[in-house]
């Protein structure tokens, strides 16, 4: 999933959650507020209902003294007295009690007295109000007809609000009853009809009492009775319209909402800010996560030290480039690169210096290669390059650039190191050949480049395979030979000028079960290149130790490879073999080559000093072929120089060789060193060397390398001759 996608998802989630929460809170609050408002309205409606009923009761109660009264029965029913009615009903009920309309009806519901707005009116004026009271009259007469009900009730009243003209009026119909012993003429008593306007002033008093805001009376059609609303139906008109009391309800919920809205707003703001912050942190976290994922991916495909592709990525790219061969016409080149003597840098300067060198190599390779090339560190000091779409000339040019780019001195924090590399190149054009084979071929070519003397590149050629197979087979057989102690040692005599044997040189011999005699010139370098030289040297030394015990007074020379000397465990091994065999160190002359001293490292120097302290003597083998540096001779505790066979073989005729040999002898003399001339094959050579002042000789003329027993015979023979 890509970053944008994840970000969008997270943003959606966060924003959705925030919005959801706010909506929910708002919704809950609104519901609660509306609920509170409804409850308040219901409460107000109940108040209004109760209040109106109360008002009617008050009016009815005020009428009671006038309708429950013997005298009223007598004066209104038994014998109607208009003057009495005017004085006791009109002026009291109308005037004192404040009823605007007062009428008296007889037993037949006929109006017999009227008083409106403070004045007596003709009873016929009742017509204007009669229609409004009909229902109430019927109800009161119904109660009157039921003696049980009449007995229960003290006063019989029925009230309702109705319109008189345009004004709402509370009409009350009351049954006139005796309070003691008066009797009506017939079964029915007179009725008192009163009317009080439910005027605005009344409503106002009412609303003040119940804290109703903006209370008013309205007459509306049924359809206009919007429900629910802050209203109470308090009556009906003759034409069926409703008389309602309306007011502006209190809305505590709404008030709450209003007072809570700043808080809600603040919460909303906080939620918005919070979700933005949350979004930003999650975004950062996602970024980090994706980065670390990319990092992990990079790490899994790259070498952590150099940042170059690792073997996995390399193989991947190689497979890919190889597959492209089917579609494209170009060639695919693979270069295998190996640093020469990297192990020495690591051993003498330490791993940090080794890492530094590797990083420098990577840096240089990056400047050498093109962007389309893949550079890889296969491990250790091995690198490889994939060069897609190339030609043999292009591959050769790149290989040359690599060899040149990775040569010369490199400044490391700890000192300077000499850099050089070997390169193996393989180029393929057809996809039939597998990519693994391509890498193998480059590796074989690299092998050959190293063998051919390092600091160079080599193209793969098919015959290399055969040579390599041979080599691999030989390597395996050498291992077996070491394990089965099949390696033997021959000794070549060293003599003085008279031909007297004064020492021997131990030379390794290997008879291969199928190939027969294999020359040390073949298997010693092989052992060096495959890490077996330590085992070979150790085997020869052990044998030489045992054999040395048989010969007294003979100096035994043993060859030590430069690689052995560089091995930190070498001296300890030598000591261990001495202890194991019981041989003496001072019998031995260790022959080392100049290349062993070339590195001039403290390790080698220390090893030589330790060997000297143990009693070993040291000879410089093949002297004159290498650097022949006087500095080595001064610095290291050398006892002897061995003049290389190449100078000896052209004696005595070659004046140049003669000059070299002469120079070596006088150099040795001036430094107090002995000299041994190697490869003396003719008497002429021997004579020339004796003339130069050389004291020791070695060569076929004086004795070929031979088994230890034969050396014993030579010594015995010599003794006999002397005797
Ligand atoms: P080297 O140390 O120079 O040994 C002397 C070589 O010269 C021997 O060859 C010997 O057989 C040969 N030689 C002696 N006299 C004559 C002569 O008059 N004419 C000719 N043409 N050759 C003569 P070899 O045994 O084949 O050994 C070759 C090289 O292998 C040695 O050269 C030495 O560098 C190396 N080598 C042999 N054995 C060992 C060993 O045990 N350890 C190590 N590190 N190297 C060894
Ligand atoms: Ca030697
Ligand atoms: Ca030699």
From TrEMBL:
InterPro entries linked: Biofilm_reg_signaling, CHASE4, EAL_dom, EAL_sf, GGDEF_dom, Nucleotide_cyclase, Rev_trsase/Diguanyl_cyclase
Domain GGDEF, first and last residues per copy: 330-462
Q: Where is the EAL domain?
A: 471-719
Membrane is among the record's keywords: yes
Q: Extract the CDD domains matched here.
A: EAL (cd01948), GGDEF (cd01949)
Q: Which sequence ranges are marked TM in the entry? A: 12-33, 260-279
Source organism superkingdom: Bacteria
Q: Which PROSITE patterns match?
A: EAL, GGDEF
SMART domains in UniProt: EAL, GGDEF
Ordered alphabetically, the record's keywords are: Membrane, Transmembrane, Transmembrane helix
* NCBIfam families, A to Z: GGDEF
Q: Which PANTHER family match?
A: BIOFILM ARCHITECTURE MAINTENANCE PROTEIN MBAA, DIGUANYLATE CYCLASE DGCP
Q: What is this protein called?
A: EAL domain-containing protein
Q: Which organism is it from?
A: Caulobacter segnis
């Amino acid at each position: 999933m890509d970053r944008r996608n994840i970000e969008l998802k997270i943003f959606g989630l966060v924003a959705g959650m925030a919005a959801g929460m706010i909506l929910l809170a708002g919704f809950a609050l609104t519901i609660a507020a509306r609920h509170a408002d409804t409850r308040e309205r219901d409460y107000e409606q109940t108040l209004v209902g109760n209040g109106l009923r109360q008002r009617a009761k008050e009016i009815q109660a005020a009428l009671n003294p006038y309708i429950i009264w013997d005298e009223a029965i007598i004066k209104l029913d038994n014998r109607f007295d208009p003057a009495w009615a005017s004085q006791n009903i009109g002026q009291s009920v109308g005037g004192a009690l404040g009823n605007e309309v007062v009428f008296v009806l007889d037993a037949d519901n006929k109006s017999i007295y009227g008083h409106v707005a403070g004045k007596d009116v003709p009873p016929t004026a009742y017509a204007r109000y009669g229609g409004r009271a009909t229902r109430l009259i019927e109800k009161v007469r119904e109660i009157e007809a039921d003696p049980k009900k009449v007995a229960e009730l003290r006063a019989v009243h029925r009230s309702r609000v109705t319109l008189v003209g345009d004004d709402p009026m509370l009409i009350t119909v009351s049954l006139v009853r005796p309070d003691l012993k008066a009797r009506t003429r017939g079964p029915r008593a007179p009725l008192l009809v009163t009317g009080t306007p439910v005027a605005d002033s009344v409503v106002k008093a009412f609303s003040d009492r119940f804290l109703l805001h903006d209370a008013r009376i309205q007459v509306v059609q049924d359809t206009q009775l919007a429900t629910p609303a802050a209203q109470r139906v308090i009556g009906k008109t003759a034409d069926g319209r409703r008389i309602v009391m309306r007011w502006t309800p209190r809305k505590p919920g709404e008030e709450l909402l209003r007072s809570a809205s700043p808080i809600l707003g603040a919460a909303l703001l906080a939620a918005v800010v919070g979700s933005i912050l949350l979004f930003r942190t999650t975004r950062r976290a996602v970024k980090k996560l994706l980065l670390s994922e990319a990092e992990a991916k990079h790490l899994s495909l790259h070498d952590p030290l150099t940042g170059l592709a690792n073997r996995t990525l390399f193989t991947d790219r190689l497979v890919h480039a190889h597959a492209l061969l089917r579609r494209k016409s170009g060639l695919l080149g693979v270069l295998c690169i190996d640093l020469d003597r990297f192990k020495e840098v690591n051993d003498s300067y330490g791993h940090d210096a080794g890492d530094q060198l590797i990083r420098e190599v990577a840096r240089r390779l990056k400047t050498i290669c093109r962007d389309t090339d893949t550079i890889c560190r296969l491990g250790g000091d091995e690198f490889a390059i994939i060069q897609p779409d190339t030609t043999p000339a292009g591959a050769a040019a790149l290989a040359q650039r690599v060899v040149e780019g990775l040569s010369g001195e490199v400044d490391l924090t700890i000192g300077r190191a000499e850099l050089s590399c070997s390169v193996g190149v393989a180029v393929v054009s057809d996809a039939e050949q597998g990519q693994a084979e391509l890498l193998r071929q480059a590796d074989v070519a690299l092998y050959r480049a190293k063998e051919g003397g390092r600091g160079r590149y080599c193209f793969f050629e098919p015959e290399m395979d055969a040579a390599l197979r041979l080599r691999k087979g030989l390597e395996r057989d050498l291992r077996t030979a070491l394990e089965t102690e099949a390696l033997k040692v021959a000794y070549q005599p060293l003599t003085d000028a008279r031909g007297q044997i004064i020492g021997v040189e131990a030379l390794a011999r290997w008879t291969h079960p199928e190939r027969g005699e294999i020359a040390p010139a073949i298997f010693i370098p092989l052992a060096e290149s495959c890490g077996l030289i330590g085992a070979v040297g150790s085997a020869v030394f052990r044998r030489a130790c045992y054999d040395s015990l048989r010969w007294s007074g003979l100096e035994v020379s043993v060859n030590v490879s430069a690689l052995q000397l560089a091995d930190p465990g070498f001296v300890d091994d030598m000591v261990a073999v001495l202890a194991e065999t019981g041989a003496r160190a001072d019998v031995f002359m260790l022959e080392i080559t100049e290349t062993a001293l070339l590195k001039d490292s403290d390790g080698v120097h220390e090893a030589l000093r330790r060997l000297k302290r143990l009693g070993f003597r040291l000879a410089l083998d093949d002297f004159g072929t290498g650097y022949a540096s006087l500095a080595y001779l001064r610095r290291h505790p050398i006892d002897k120089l061995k003049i290389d066979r190449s100078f000896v073989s052209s004696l005595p005729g070659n004046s140049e060789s003669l000059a070299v040999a002469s120079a070596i002898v006088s150099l040795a003399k001036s430094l107090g060193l002995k000299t041994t001339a190697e490869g003396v094959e003719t008497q002429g050579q021997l004579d020339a060397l004796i003339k130069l002042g050389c004291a020791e000789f070695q060569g076929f003329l004086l004795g070929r390398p031979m088994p230890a027993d034969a050396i014993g015979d030579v010594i015995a023979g010599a003794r006999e001759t002397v005797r």
